[in-house]
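Thread: "does anyone have the structure for this chain?"

Original post by V.I.:
We have the sequence but no experimental structure in hand. Need at least a predicted one for the grant figures.
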Amino acid sequence: MPIKVQSDLPAKEILEHENIFVMDEYRALHQDIRPLQIGILNLMPVKEDTELQILRLLGNCLLQVDVTLLTLETHVSKNTSLSHLNKFYMTVPELIQSGVALDGLIITGAPLERMDYDQVDFWDEIEEIFAWAQENVTSTMFVCWGALAGLYYYYGISKFSYEKKLSGVFSHRVLNRKEPLVRCFDDVFCAPHSRFSGVRKEDVLKHPELKIMAESEEAGLYLVMKKDGSQVFVLGHPEYDRMTLDGEYHRDIEKGKNPDIPKHYYENDDPTKRPLLTWRANSGLLYSNWLNYYVYQTTPYDIRKIPDVNKAKEGNK
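Reply from O.Q.:
Generated one for you, tokens below.
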């Protein structure tokens, strides 16, 4: 089934060229179906790239998805034009005022891992959004910095810093195979990471309401979820394209940062070679499983009843 986006969103033409079914507002009005309302709070610097990456994964799902792009009210993006933000994005208060309710929410990463949370200039707004999502969204997926911040806000799990940036494509092992989030995953699968911080496994295990779903010997935890499925924390970047890590690597070289070559990414660790794409299938599966089992099969048909559903989840623990 298709994803629904604004007709003139630049990512729409690229997705259509890739043969991903994208529907505009006009066609959606003529379909007798309630699509899933999914918000993407895009905290990444170059928002157009992240839009495309996440929409590509959502577009391969079997469910019809109506996407709302969200940005912050208290932070001005330096790497995305104001005209793009004004045309295609809204803030969470604007979303609430519009009357649109969300079934699911994706909160992206941000290049902030080396900063304390209270040093982030929009942390107060992030806390407000986290509190709102807990009460008003059936399931939220937190990605990379979003996952670190979510684990800290909801569970008090602090991050720790690495000596060097964790960058590359790492092998992970599936845990808790019976959980639908990892249904049809191979025992071992690859996923990209690009961050300066992580969380310790022993800190997560202190919280019985959390479940570790996948981890890596080299990269540490990858998938953590709340047992009722209302929160999914992804500590890597499953949405990354083939060349995203390559772009980051060469960007850091140009800035004189002397970065390490991303691990297990280039063939024979040769950055002159085109990277092999080894994570796309399981990345799509992760998003499909999340949408199907934790959003579609949980959210009420009347989307206004989501707060009641979340209260029922809390009462059934």
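V.I.: this helps a lot. The mean pLDDT is 89.
O.Q.: and Residues 3-160+197-236+280-310 form a domain with the Rossmann fold fold (CATH 3.40.50.880).
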